[in-house]
Structure formats: structure tokens, C-alpha cells
Amino acid sequence: MAKWVYLFTEGDATMRNLLGGKGANLAEMTNIGLPVPQGFTITTEACTQYYEDGREINDEIQGQINEYIEKMEEITGKKFGDKENPLLVSVRSGARASMPGMMDTILNLGLNETVVETIAAKSGNPRWAWDCYRRFIQMYSDVVMEVGKKYFEELIDEMKAKKGVSQDVDLTAEDLKELASQFKAEYKEKIGEDFPDDPKKQLMGAIKAVFRSWDNPRANVYRRDNDIPYSWGTAVNVQSMAFGNMGDDCGTGVAFTRDPATGEKKLMGEFLTNAQGEDVVAGVRTPMPIAQMEEKFPEAFEQFKQVCQTLEDHYRDMQDMEFTVENKKLYMLQTRNGKRTAQAALKIACDLVDEGMRTEEEAVAMIDPRNLDTLLHPQFDAAALKAATPMGKALGASPGAACGKIVFTAEDAKAWAERGEKVVLVRLETSPEDIEGMKSAQGILTVRGGMTSHAAVVARGMGTCCVSGCGDIVMDEANKKFTLAGKEFHEGDSISLDGSTGNIYDGIIPTVDATIAGEFGRIMAWADKYRTMGVRTNADTPSDAKKARELGAEGIGLCRTEHMFFEGNRIDAFREMICSDTVEEREAALDKILPYQQGDFEQLFEAMEGNPVTIRFLDPPLHEFVPQTEEDIKKLADAQGKSVETIKAIIESLKEFNPMMGHRGCRLTVTYPEIAVMQTKAVIRAALAVQAKHADWTIVPEIMIPLVGEEKELKYVKKIVVKTADEEIKAAGSDMKYEVGTMIEIPRAALLADEIAKEAEFFCFGTNDLTQMTFGFSRDDAGKFLDAYYDAKIFENDPFAKLDQNGVGKLMDMAVKLGKGQRPELHCGICGEHGGDPSSVEFCHRIGLDYVSCSPFRVPIARLAAAQAAISMKH
Ligand code: PEP
Ligand code: MG
Predict the structure, then answer these.
(1) Would the CB of 619 count as within 6 Å of ligand 1?
(2) pLDDT tens track for 493-551
(3) Which atom belonging to ligand 1 lies closest to the Cα atom of 560?
């Protein structure tokens, strides 16, 4: 019989896949002797089984849960529903990878009228007992039975109004008792049956709810963003309750062993007296800094500091912990490697190396490459920032600079961002339903909540700037306005946020680009030391190329030459070329384009300082370039001495039913060889000119032919290129080398890569087209149905963003083997969008690619991901 349930004493930190992160760490903390309220973990496999069984917990699993309840009762000396010593538990989710706030939690489970009376009498604190019960009914109704929270909140508000008090804490035991019975009546009205009294029934309901929450919409979005597979499932932790809300010698807190925003080595956190954990995280009451805990609970604080040290030494990483103090005694409820900003991640990794806790390789492996993104994005211009006066200040909860137009709801944030607006989401507080809106916003500003509030934690995870807990704001969410520093702000007004200092500014402050320095530089240098795969960039302009070089690109892997044709009056010459009737006319137009191309290529060679530059010949269907407006058509007709009708007829003739599979790529050269002749001349002349200026560089231009599917096709085009290039080189009296290679972006080319490699000196995988053609999905339209694919669990990711390793990857693997088998010196790279996606980069390393090429801002991400791939394959 499979084992579905483990006591905390039966597990350890290595069992993360089975017990989830929280369960494995509760077991580990138990093993190393820390004060952990005991309990058990139902495995992630049980979650998978629950879904396989049609969202039911089968008898075998139920049987084991019941058995473990008994074991837990023995260990704690408490019993479910007991009149003397009742057992109360928390039920929490815990996946392999932490997903803060995405799944459900139920506290105070095990309560019923009898148990409440017992604990009220035993503790001498009936107010606390009834408060627990009304919280439990509320949470259970909301989480397990999905009765909305708002009905209960309305009842609380009515009760407060009736009693003439403004705070929950001002309600008496009697008030709370009456509320509990009102809540139960509300439950009966909504659900049609009595609120369950039997703790075991309550527990099964709660466990099912946690399993079910694995599939809730916000968890699905979070998983997709964080590359967490649906198949992993969540574990459920059932833990004996420790009470932080039993009175003034109780409390609860959340703390980090290092600052999760900056990485600084100091205890950071928040604490609330007489409260339960959810109160801190929900940001409903603004908590006090952890240091103040020392005054209230000196002994528990001293012990807590020691626990922090023990846990850091044990896990050799920054820890994020939840704890409770019950009657002055400390209980640890959770520890995990803390989520952190990119900046903090770099500092912590470097500090751990300097402290002798981690090796360089381990430090490199600790950084999530996707996080680097935030460091590469603009910060406020220092001078403009100095000149600006903040109109308010709150907590700098997640660093970065954000400016944009104010919106008040997550839906508005999403809708405005979709139409291209930059927005700042301003809320009283955020909740998990706001996730999509938070993702769409440049920054988030909340009125309530601390550094560990939902807004702060989630924003840090996403790398979005966040300023939280600005109590000075007088908010009017209903009318979409707020007042700050005496000024009223409405939807659409501009503000700027500094997520590092917590400053809030009226209007827009200009931003500047980030640079790689300090710890960022150190980590990147280590990454370069351990990676074996090259990293190039996709760049079509000298400025992109320079940026990429600054960010560490070792060459250009893809220059899309057609992108150079749109600037200034170049497009006119290009349109003349397209609308030519004869070879002579076309050549005359190409002669006009040649100097532009040559000049651009020279700048690219200069920017790359002798590193490889791959120039891809004209690729897209020509109709993309034809004039659209009457005015432009007339202009072209005049320039060519043709009638408007003739031009319109040519434009009409260029229309295709399936342009992406039409007259494009190398097919253009087969029909118009003179285009390839011009482009070859431009590349070779540019390379010769730059080589002549820099004797210490060895320039070997790489000419790349797109959309090849057949060896003879490439042979035909290559012949034209080689003839032209050799003539140019000879005429210049040079012996410069150059290479002619091809993109592999049609499945047939991958299947016949050995034949193609007879002609190609290099391969570069164009995984945008290769994905399009392997799936038969249009790369421009797939977005229209991908959401339905995610909902139906057919796909977990966009295959245009994250490489489909099973299908497209199989073609790539095969092509590399066939190609290198034919021509051992063949070099292979990738230049589709996937070249900057960490998991795809890892795959590229595994199949033996020589380099990846990606957009400039993703170069550091690719460098780090390549290093991580090399390190993990080594060990
Ligand atoms: C590709 O298809 O992956 C590629 C890099 O080329 P493009 O995106 O220009 O078609
Ligand atoms: Mg392509």
C-alpha cells in the first residue's frame, strides 16, 4: 500500500518533491530540535491522486489520514472534539516550489460549540475563544464552501455599528458569540445545511479545499509565470495550532534573516501582538518592526534570534520564517528560502561566498535568471530625482522605478495596459485576485500593509516596483480618487514611485538605463567562468548592438536586415525595388539601398569589436513593405514613372493567402538573385572596411540564408553569394574569410540536416518559425486560442516563449547530431525568442549548441542560465 501521509518526525528537507517545501522544512526543523507544533503532511502524490479520482479523496488516503490524526493526538496529548484537551489544527498548502498566497489555508479547525466553551473556560479568555470560532466559521465558509467573505464582513460591520465601536478588538466575548451564531445561520442559508461540528468532517473538507486550490485561476497564472508544472500538485500540512491571539502575551510574526529588498545582513520582519498569522500577511493591521518584539517578549526574541542563526547555517541561505508566541513561548510555523529582489539575490549570493558558506558555483546556481530583468530596466534619472520633492513616503517594498497613470482596480490596470498605457495601480490593499492587474502595472501603491503584505511579497516576486502602507493617503476607491499631501488625484493622473526609498512623487520622473556593476558584475563574471556555451545577441541597429555588447554579448547571432529598411527615405528605394518590372530597374533600386546597408553593417562590425556578426538575408514576404496610403502609392508611381494603377496592380499581385509560408526567405533570392548580390556586396565591403581600420581584429562575416528546406535551394543561393563575395574580396586584394550558413527553421531542414550541412558552414535555429511550422500554429495568431489551451490543460506554457523540448527540441537535437556528423566543424546556435528563456537555454546546452542569441536585455539572463546549465550538468 502506498504511503500518503507522513508525520513531521518521519520526513526531512530532501523530501521536498513528496512533502512540498513547507512539509519538508517542518520535518527538518523538527529533526534539528526547533520548537515546532507537531502534525503531519499529506503528500503531493495524494493531490495528484485526488485529481485522478475525479476530485475525491479515496478511501485508502482517508484511512491513512484518520490513522495519522490518532498519531497526532498521541503526540500532542490533545484530541479532536475533546472536552478536556481539544486538538485544534491549521491546514495549509505547500507545493514543491513556494507559491506565496496562491493557495488556501484554514486555521482554528476542530472548533465547535462544545470545544469553544471548553477552551474559553480553560484559558479564562472567552473573548479569544469566541474570536477563534467566528474566524474559523468565516474562513471555512469562504475557503471550503466558497461562500463569499463579504457576507460575514457585513455582519461584523453591522455588529460594530450596533455596539458603537470602530475596531474588531473592541467587540466583547458576548458580541463575538452572537456573531458566531449569525455566521452559522448565514452558512445554513447559503449552503442549505448546518455548519459541520465534527472535526474530522471539517478536516476532510479543508484538505479537499487545499487540493482544489491547486487548480484555482490565480495559482494557474502564477505557475505559468514561474515555470511550475501542474503535475507537481500540492501537499497539505496539518499542524497543531499555536495561538498568537490569546492575549497580550501572545503574538505572531514573519521575519527574514536578511533584508529581502536589499540583501543586507540584518534581521528584518514584522510582529503583531494578540493576532493570528493571517493578520500580518493580509496587511489588514499595520504591524510593528520585529526589533520591537524584544521589548515585549525578551526571552522569546532571544530564542528566535538563535533559531534564525541555526536555520541560516543549516540551509546556507536567507530564510523567511513564520512564528507564533503563545503565552510568551516561541513556536516555529514555517521556514523557507526567502523570496527576494534581484538586487538582494545578488548581494546575498556574494555575501554567502565571502562568508565561506557557498562556493562560486553554488552562488551562480542560486540566482533566478528571470529576476535579473528588473536590474536591467530603467531607474530614475538621478538628477531629476534629486530635483523632485516627494509628496509622500511609505515602505519601499519592492525596488525599481515606476511612473504612469493612476488606476484603481486590477481590471482597469489590465485593460489600460493592453491598450498601451503605463499604469500605476493604487489600492487600499491588494489580494490574490489582483494578480493579473499587478502584473500589468508598472508599479503598485497600497494604503495599508507592511513589507510582508500580499502586495509587497507578490510585487517582489514579479520584480515590480511597490510602495506599501501609505497611511497618509485618504482613499475613495468607489469614486476612483484619493488625496495625498493636500492634492486630489483621479484616475489617469500621473505619479511616480520609488520602490527602494518608498517615495511617492506627483507627475512623471524620467528614467535612465541600468548598468552592470558591483555584485551584478561579480556574479556575471562567475557565470562567464563556468559557462561553456556562447551568448550572442539579436541586433539590427548599432545602438542595440552597443547595448548588447555592454551587457556581455559575444557577437551578433541574428541581424534581421529587413529591419534596416524602414528608416527615413530608405523605404522609398526599397519600394522601388519591390515594384520593379525588370532586372535592370530592380538593380537600379538596389544600388540606392547598397550604401545604406553597407554603412549599417560597418557600424555593427565596429560595435562587435571583431566578434562574430551573423547577417541574415532578406526574409519577410515583400507585401509587408508596399505602400498602403494613396499618397505613398502616388509618390512611388511618380518616382518610377509608372501609373498609380500599375503600382496598385503590382501590390495586388504580391498578396498571398499564407504569406508566412509564401514568397519569403531564400525563395526571394531564387526569384530575385540580384537582392542577394546586393546584400553580399554590402556585407563584404563593410567587413573589409572595418577590418582595414582594425588590424588587431579578425573579422569573419557570417552570411545566413533564411527558410531553407532543401540542400539544392541552399546550394543555389550560396553559389550567388560566394561568387559575389569572392569577387569583392579579390578586388580588394584581401584574403578575408567569410562563412555561409543557414537558419534551421523549417522541419524539413532539421530532418535532412546532414544533407544541408554539406553546404552550410553553420546552423542557427530559428525557433520562431520552427515552432510555427512544427505545430502548424501561426506565430501571429496563436495567442487567440492559447488561453483556451491553458484552461484545458493541453498546454502549460506558450511554445513561442518556452521551447517545446519534446517536439521542436527533438528536431533540434536530431539536426545538431546529423549536421555535426556530416561536418564536424559546423557551429550551431539558436536565434529564435527562446534564446533568452532560461529553461530553453538549458536545453540548448544539453543538446550541444555552441551559442544562444537573444535580445540585448536578455543577454545577462542567457549568460547566467548557460552557466547554471553547465554547472548542473557537471554535478
Ligand atoms: C525565427 O524564425 O526563429 C527567426 C529568428 O527568424 P524571424 O523571427 O525573423 O522569422
Ligand atoms: Mg524565421
Answers:
(1) yes
(2) 999 999 888 999 999 998 876 777 789 999 999 999 999 999 999 998 888 899 899 99
(3) 9
Three-state DSSP state, 55: coil
Which CA distances in Å does 517 have to 275, 343, 520? 43, 11, 5
Handedness of CA 48, 54, 58, 64 (dihedral sign): positive
Decide: 293 and 300 in contact? Cβ < 8 Å: yes
At residue 244, φ and ψ (nearest 5 deg) are -95, -5
Q: Is the CB of 766 under 6 A from ligand 1?
A: yes
Residues designated as active site: 454, 831
Q: What is the 3-state secondary structure (H, E, C) of 771-835?
A: HHHHHCCCCCCCHHHHHHHHHCCCCCCCCCCCCCCCCHHHHHHHHHHHHHHHCCCCEEEECCHHH
Crossing angle between the packed helical segments 673-693 and 711-731, to the nearest 10 degrees = 40
Is the distance from CB of 102 to CB of 224 less than 8 angstroms? no
Pocket test for ligand 1, best of 624, 743, 772, 800 (most atoms within 8 A of CB): 743
CA of 542 to the centre of ligand 1 (A): 20
Tell me yes or no: is domain 377-512 CATH 3.40.50.720.
no
Neighbours of ion ligand 2 (CB under 5 A): 745, 766, 769
Residue 621 Cβ < 6 Å to ligand 1: no
Domain boundaries, the chain: 5-246, 377-512, 531-621+656-874
CA distance 203 to 188: 19
Query: What homologous superfamily does CATH list for 5-246?
Result: ATP-grasp fold, A domain (3.30.1490.20)
pLDDT digits (tens, 9 = 90+) for 137-174: 999 999 999 998 889 989 999 999 999 988 877 899 99
Does ligand 1 lie within 6 Å of residue 368's CB atom?
no
C-alpha 832 to ligand 1 mean position (Å): 5
Residue 324 Cα to ligand 1 middle (Å): 55
pTM over 0.70: yes
Asked whether 376 and 342 are in contact (CB, 8 A), the reply is no
Q: Is 767 in the pocket of ligand 1 (CB under 6 A)?
A: yes
Ligand 1 pocket test target in 768, 775, 804 with most atoms within 8 Å of CB? 768
Tell me the CATH number for domain 531-621+656-874.
3.20.20.60
